[in-house]
Specification:
Blueprint (H helix, E strand, L loop, with lengths): L2 H5 L1 H4 L5 H9 L2 E5 L3 H13 L3 E5 L24 H12 L4 E5 L8 H5 L4 E4 L4 H14 L3 E7 L2 E7 L7 H4 L12 H4 L4 H18 L9 E8 L4 E8 L22 E4 L5 E5 L8 H8 L4 E4 L3 E6 L2 E6 L4 E4 L4 H12 L2
Parallel strand pairs: 1-2, 1-4, 2-3, 4-5
Antiparallel strand pairs: 5-6, 6-7, 7-8, 9-10, 10-14, 11-12, 12-13, 13-14
Helix pairs in contact: 4-5, 4-10
Bound molecules: zinc ion (ZN).
Length: 341
């Protein structure tokens, strides 16, 4: 038996996977959007299962309170980009998988190009806006994706196969008002729930990639799990008549005009600024400029600058995370002052 077969022998023994299923996994490209608790469990499963190409997208840096549940990171990784730290450990786990990393904000300016060529997209995000954008690209391009969410002691998954099943906007027609949805920062999250949901999510991805999606004609299903109460519920989800996305072909979130985005990072004393246009910043030049004003640290991926109580982390694509403020106007003016844009 050759070593490649040997590595996956316990998996290809399963009649559900078999040799043919294993070969299909090895020829597949999976894109994971978001590498928090869900995304890191998903990436760990896919890489160990031998999915041939795994693409990691995340904009954030690792913080101490992530370590309670984000299984790919350790204390040594604090303040490193999640995608970079994840790729490093994943590549050690399985050198035969091609891992691609993108330390960037997934948004309208890059969503289509980042998902191009995917055989499946896996949800590791923590917000609806990004899910609507994934849904628009996937429905437009006919790419299957798996919706997943975890908060508190519960979570849910739903497989979405464009052209066959309902889409995400059939389930959630539009963005609810601010404050309606629970988030991990407000509700907390039990560390057993992301791994449980990620396991269901990856299993759906294996079914899709091996050509055995478990969906009905014109329907999908949503599984809701509560780990604390030990309950599993499965609901049939029908297609919504007149869904703007999968029925009318209107991609509202993808077609939104790219604009500068100022986001207050959920539950943290930090603001993120994403430039409207694609750009490439010379971090070395910026280091030379800023080192006269305060303490500067430069890594291949980002530059961190500290001045007073604020700390700036800026990436090559111009995106910045400003820690130490919750005020968008202050953050924008600091960005203008130090970055000069
Ligand atoms: Zn729909």
């Amino acid at each position: 038996m050759n070593p490649v077969q040997d590595r996956y022998c316990r998996q290809s023994l399963l009649p559900e996977i078999g040799r043919d299923g294993q070969r299909r996994l090895s020829e597949s490209r999976a894109v994971i959007v978001g590498l928090g608790a869900l995304g890191s469990c998903v990436a760990n499963n896919l890489v160990r299962a031998g999915v041939g190409q795994v693409v990691l997208i995340d904009r954030d840096l690792i913080e101490l309170h992530n370590l309670q549940r984000q299984i790919l990171y350790s204390e040594e990784d604090l303040n490193r980009p999640k995608a970079v730290a994840a790729a490093e450990i994943l590549q050690k786990i399985n050198t035969s998988v091609a891992i691609e990393t993108h330390t960037k904000d997934f948004n309208v300016s890059n969503a289509e190009s980042l998902l191009t060529g995917a055989d499946v997209v896996l949800d590791g995000t923590d917000n609806l806006q990004t899910r609507f954008l994934i849904n628009d690209v996937c429905v437009k391009r006919g790419i299957p994706w798996v919706y997943a969410g975890a908060v508190g002691t519960g979570g849910m998954v739903m497989p979405i196969l464009p052209g066959k099943t309902p889409c995400f906007r059939c389930l959630v027609p539009s963005l609810p008002g601010p404050g309606v949805l629970q988030t991990c920062d407000i509700a907390g999250v039990l560390n057993t729930i992301p791994s449980l949901i990620a396991s269901l999510e990856c299993t759906l991805a294996y079914r899709i990639l091996t050509g055995q999606p478990d969906v009905g004609e014109e329907t999908s299903y949503l599984v809701h799990v509560d780990a604390w109460r030990q309950t599993f519920d499965r609901m049939t989800i029908p297609r919504r008549a007149g869904c703007p996305c999968c029925h009318d072909g209107k991609y509202d979130y993808l077609d939104a005009v790219a604009r500068e985005m100022i986001t207050s990072l959920c539950g943290r004393d930090a603001i993120q600024i994403t430039p409207a246009t694609q750009m490439e910043i010379s971090l070395a030049e910026l280091e030379a400029r800023l080192s006269r004003l305060g303490e500067v640290r430069l890594t291949p991926y980002m530059l961190t600058f500290r001045s007073g109580t604020e700390e700036f982390s800026i990436f090559r694509d111009g995106r910045a995370i400003i820690k130490g403020t919750k005020d968008e106007v202050t953050a924008r003016s600091l960005y203008a002052r130090y970055i000069g844009l």
